Amino acid sequence: MDLWQIIVLAVIQGLTEFLPISSSAHLILPSQVLGWPDQGLAFDVAVHVGTLTAVVWYFRQTVVQLSGAWVVDTVQRRIGPQSGLAWAVIAGTIPAGLAGILLNDVIETTLRSGLVIATSTVGFGLVLWWSDAVGRRERSLAALSMKDALVIGVAQALALIPGTSRSGITITAALFLGFSRESAARFSFLLSIPLILAAGLLKTLELVQQGGATDWAAIAIGTGLSFVSALVCIHLFLTFLERLGLMPFVIYRLVLGALLFVMLL
Question: At a CB cut-off of 8 Å and minimum separation 6, what does 221 contact?
């Protein structure tokens, strides 16, 4: 990759990882639409590290509180509000983790196509609009149950389909369950931490097994830019979510999906 491609792909990863528009779709599209070379595993690891660092840093106080409460309450065999939320994050991560392990080969060989991306971009965009339209938006994270976490976690597993959007499908599920937009987004961001970490570790293992030379300049630029763009994205998304709603992202998905269909058919 040249410098321009590195910059564009790193910023795309940082911006789209946490917006309901699918980061995997946007990282696949440049190679299929513009003929860019595949960014490779090393770069994938780098941008995942960048986005993971961004979300952990942004929610650092919450992460420390949940982790500490989980350790203390687990030792004392009790569940409090903070440790309960930590257990909910764990429970919500399990379905996507299992699906990723069992279906990774199928997804890599059969679902990473432009037509799948276009279809899921439009389809799940409409479902996002539906959830925002009919959801009561009354519940907060304090009301999150283990059943809620598992339902959102099962929905998160659908994000393995390129074009679905991990944040989009988890926010969609939370809205259907009656949570406010902000609560849905915050839980989606917390759920992203163990999943991005697991994906990064898996890609790192694959990278070690492959061996070969590494472009450390591209790695450094990709990590830094994905971190900065993700940090800005999270802050702006949470700041303006209640004011703007989710319709701008729905419209974006419909327009993008339509353009993809025109290009592919």
Answer: 3, 6, 7, 10
